[in-house]
Write a structure and sequence with these properties.
There is one protein chain. This protein is mainly alpha-helical. Helices cover about 65% and strands about 0% of the residues. The protein has 18 helices and two strands. A two-stranded antiparallel ribbon has the order 1-2. Helix 2 runs parallel beside helix 4 and helix 7 packs antiparallel against helix 8. The longest helix has 23 residues.
Length: about 375
């Protein structure tokens, strides 16, 4: 079914034809072509996604090799070369769903969103494990074509079929946040994290939101979790810098070695009541200005800060149930880290992006402890909202 109301939101198109002296038959043909074009445009931008009915044809060994070549070219940024490989496959087997998906993805990567959208819609006609990927691709394309409201509907439709898919939840969150629907966006982001606690970008984005909205302790916890799953990348370095800055806030050194401590008593608590912990964190940061601390390396001071943070978290209102996502999702994970004596491997592991020889030396010398921590972390049973 066509959502023809979308026709009015299509880009303005100017068509120039010289119809002077045209015969009725020619005019009729022109009108038919114009109607066909408009209907096709409406289809591309606002097509309803029907349940898949077609069975794809399996990828042959020959075509699998071509697709792998295409993926390698795509990863190098040669999107046209990748597209040529996928089209070679589809010329011989137009129902190879993997080739269709990769083709749509490469068109998306080269910013040809209309072409990518057309291919993605075709892909949804087939029953395959790539169906959720086609939903995500359609939503991404619509979002980039300034059809964000339609993208939201596509993600929501996909979630009816795949309610626990982190990619649909995450991309829905990104689109909602782009439209300044912050509360809805945060809810979708949290759904993505409950669906897949190891999906890195969810923690990274939520940490940014927490920081922007002045949720200091939740922001620290979100950054720490992000750094566990992505410890050493360009954005890890940025996240770590943000974490260390948050850990340092609250205390400054004034004249005559006087230390000034500022405690925010008006912090929001809908993510959990972290007021006492925030106050303790400000006092903790003051310790770095003491003469005794000057004898320690920067890495040692950060490890001590993270160790004390987890210790204080364990002691603050332990065992008491509270509403709030950060309190119920993040806090138990970090308390368990301390209880299992993983605090040190955790702290050094998330400091990797500092590129410190001291950090690298500790990780090498204690690789067994680090591996035990990571194995436990991978199997940890996260809060699922129930």
């Amino acid at each position: 079914m066509l959502a023809c109301a979308a026709l009015f939101s299509l880009p303005v198109i100017t068509l120039r034809f010289d119809l002077k002296g045209a015969q009725p038959a020619m005019l009729k043909k022109f009108i038919s072509l114009l109607v066909f074009y408009l209907v096709l445009s409406c289809l591309v931008f606002a097509q309803e996604i029907a349940p898949p009915k077609l069975e794809p044809k399996p990828t042959t060994e020959k075509h699998d090799a071509l697709i792998r070549d295409g993926i390698a070219l795509h990863d190098k940024g040669n999107f046209d070369g990748a597209i040529a490989k996928y089209q070679e496959v589809l010329t011989e087997n137009s129902e190879d769903v993997l080739a269709l998906y990769e083709l749509g993805y490469s068109y998306f990567a080269k910013s040809d969103y209309k072409k990518s959208l057309e291919i993605a819609y075709k892909g949804t006609q087939y029953k395959s494990k790539y169906l959720v990927g086609f939903y995500v691709l359609i939503g991404n394309n619509l979002d980039n074509l300034n059809e964000s409201e339609k993208a939201i509907k596509v993600y929501q439709s996909g979630l009816k079929l795949y309610p626990d898919n982190q990619l649909l939840h995450f991309n829905l969150a990104v689109t909602l946040l782009r439209l300044n629907k912050t509360d809805e966006g945060k809810k979708s982001l949290k759904n993505a994290m409950m669906a897949d606690p190891n999906y890195r970008s969810s923690h990274y984005l939520l940490a940014q939101l927490y920081h922007k909205e002045n949720y200091k302790i939740p922001a620290i916890l979100a950054i720490c979790r992000f750094l566990v799953v992505e410890p050493d990348s360009p954005r890890s370095a940025s996240a770590l810098q943000g974490l260390l800055s948050l850990l340092s806030e609250g205390a400054t050194k004034g004249k005559d070695n006087q230390i000034n401590i500022v405690i925010n008593t008006d912090s929001k608590n809908d993510e959990g009541d972290f007021g006492a912990l925030q106050g303790a964190l400000a006092i903790m940061s003051a310790a770095k200005h003491l003469d005794e601390s000057k004898k320690k390396s920067e890495v040692q001071l950060w490890v001590e800060s993270l160790t004390l943070l987890l210790s204080l978290m364990d002691e603050a209102k332990d065992g008491k149930k509270q509403p709030g996502f950060a309190w119920n999702y993040y806090r138990p994970y970090f308390i368990e880290i301390r209880k299992r004596n993983f605090t040190e491997p955790f702290a050094y592991f998330i400091l990797q992006s500092k590129q410190s020889p001291e950090v690298q030396k500790w990780l090498v010398q204690n690789y067994q402890k680090v591996n035990e921590f990571l194995a436990w972390s991978k199997s940890y049973q996260w809060y699922n909202g129930k």
